[in-house]
Write a structure and sequence with these properties.
seven-stranded antiparallel beta sheet; 267 residues; 51% helix
């Protein structure tokens, strides 16, 4: 949620996106949104996130869950067979429907109750690191603000990282190149806390996560977000954002030029 929006506006926005407002209320809200830049930006962000979620491929049914469902339904089928051929035919139809419905319900419950990280791990097993970094980016966008420390001053953000992590990256000022420093946050990749620097480019948020050397991932797109990775002597970097891949390449060049392979700062 945009920190500048009131809670009542956020509730109205969600109701509007879900089609829950009556025509008069919806028209009034659209008039407000047309003149409110913050509200319009939050609407665009929310719709972008919803589109990204819709692109997630369905997760596989866990083998254990499928076996339990089949065992239960087979038991029901046996009872139906004892009731006679006619009932047996009905039971077979119900079995086919029941398994699909139960499996769909189980998957839906897993998606709703699971975290973004677990969902992404299902559809991108070949590249867990990239999936987890993108999940961290999405979680940041869905939070009240995409950072734990808000500051455009690199001399504030870097010491904040240094006091919390074993290894602290450089935090260059890239405003002259069109990438404004917003702050930083600590994400968790696997079981390890890592630094993520947050920049803004026009209306786009860029998350730059720092990893161990050698943990680079292929440049790719995941759930509508472009991913770009590179390394220097001390860190691997994974940049994520919904801006074009060419702009992420510009960001990489700007960052690399401003932060050339520094010595690692330890607390």
């Amino acid at each position: 949620m945009n920190a500048s929006l009131r809670e009542s506006d956020e509730l109205l926005l969600n109701a509007y996106c879900d089609g829950e407002l009556d025509p008069a209320a919806a028209s009034e809200f659209e008039r407000r949104m047309a003149s409110d830049a913050a509200l319009k930006a939050r609407y665009s962000q929310l719709m972008s996130l919803r589109r990204a979620v819709r692109t997630l491929p369905p997760a596989d049914v866990p083998s254990g869950l499928q076996a339990r469902l089949e065992a239960r339904l087979n038991a029901e089928q046996t009872g139906a067979e004892q009731a006679g051929r006619a009932n047996h035919a009905i039971a077979l139809r119900r079995r086919s429907w029941s398994f699909q419905a139960l499996a769909a319900s189980a998957l839906l419950g897993a998606v709703i109750s699971g975290s973004v990280l677990k969902t992404m791990d299902h559809f991108s097993r070949r590249d867990t690191i990239a999936s987890e970094v993108v999940a961290g980016h999405i979680r940041g966008l869905m939070a009240p603000q995409p950072f734990d420390i808000a500051s455009s001053d690199r001399h504030t953000v870097k010491p904040w990282f240094t006091s919390r992590l074993p290894e602290s990256p450089q935090v260059p000022d890239l405003s002259a190149q069109g990438f404004t420093l917003l702050g930083g946050r600590v994400d968790v990749i696997g079981d390890r806390p890592v630094a993520t620097i947050v920049y803004k480019h026009a209306a786009h948020t860029v998350s730059l996560t720092t990893l161990r050397p050698g943990e680079t991932v292929p440049d790719q797109a995941i759930a509508g977000y472009n991913v770009r990775s590179w390394s220097d002597g001390n860190f691997s970097y994974v940049a994520v954002g919904d801006l074009p891949a060419a702009d992420l390449a510009v960001f990489e060049r700007a960052f690399s030029a401003a932060a050339p392979a520094p010595e690692i700062t330890r607390p």
